[in-house]
Amino acid sequence: MRHKVAGRKLSRTKEHRLAMRRNLVASLIQHETISTTMEKAKEVKPFAEKLITLAKKGTLPARRRAISLLGNRDIVEYEDGKETKKGTVIGKLFSEIGPRYLDRPGGYTRIIRLSLRRLGDNGQLVLLQLVGNEEEAEKETKTTRKKRFGKKTKKPAKSEQALEVQEAVENEETADVQDSSDIEEPEETQDNEEQADKNQ
Q: How far apart (Å, rounded) are the C-alpha atoms in residues 175 and 181?
């Protein structure tokens, strides 16, 4: 019996599990979302969150600890068939991801179930991703909902572009009115002249 033995074996040896965990977390940091199986995602999630907590500290000992736990893989992108180095995983973790979550006490990753199954073994696929800009969008929609259903407030001021368009339309209308009045005036003067001739 495996009493008080934490973690999943995942049909791998200890070395294979460690390498797989490091590779998955490095890919998560590089791409910010990865597709894997549910069991692997649940196994990797706590490790990723511990590394992000280290990155929030931002100190040199924290950086060294993260390198010892994760390694320092290069981020390589292919442009026109050539490899270009864009930095390292630890560099991105400490410069971009750590500062992003300074105000957040935990819960930096999420698991989203997919309806897809893996073709080979019919395994349940999930998305493991970092919680990011989606929350800002949700906050904006929540504030608009509050405005919509809450107290009635004044209408927001029109944007500059809308005002410019409205002014242009008004200018065109006034120009049309002036043009039409210019056209009508000669007809009226001709009618007045004809009436004056008849009266004489």
A: 10
Strands of the sheet containing 33-37, edge to edge, are 33-37, 124-130, 109-117
Handedness of CA 102, 134, 69, 92 (dihedral sign): negative
* Whole-angstrom distance, CA of residue 7 vs CA of residue 43: 7
Q: Is 93 exposed, middle or buried (0-12, 13-18, 19+ CB in 10 A)?
A: buried
157, 162, 168, 169: CA torsion to nearest 10: -90
In total, the chain counts a number of residues equal to 200
With a CB cutoff of 8 Å and minimum separation 6, the contacts of 51 are: 25, 29, 66, 69, 70, 93
Q: Rounded mean pLDDT of the chain?
A: 83
Q: How far apart are CA 109 and CA 45, in angstroms?
A: 7
Per the CB < 8 A criterion, the answer to whether 73 and 26 are in contact is yes
CA distances from 26 to 80, 94, 138, 154 (A): 24, 13, 28, 49
**Tokens encoding 143:** 């504030």
C-alpha–C-alpha distance, residues 124 and 39, integer Å: 9
- Residues of the chain falling short of pLDDT 70: 133-163, 165, 169, 173-200
What confidence tens digit (pLDDT) does each residue in 135-181 have? 655 666 666 666 556 555 555 555 566 667 677 767 776 666 555 55
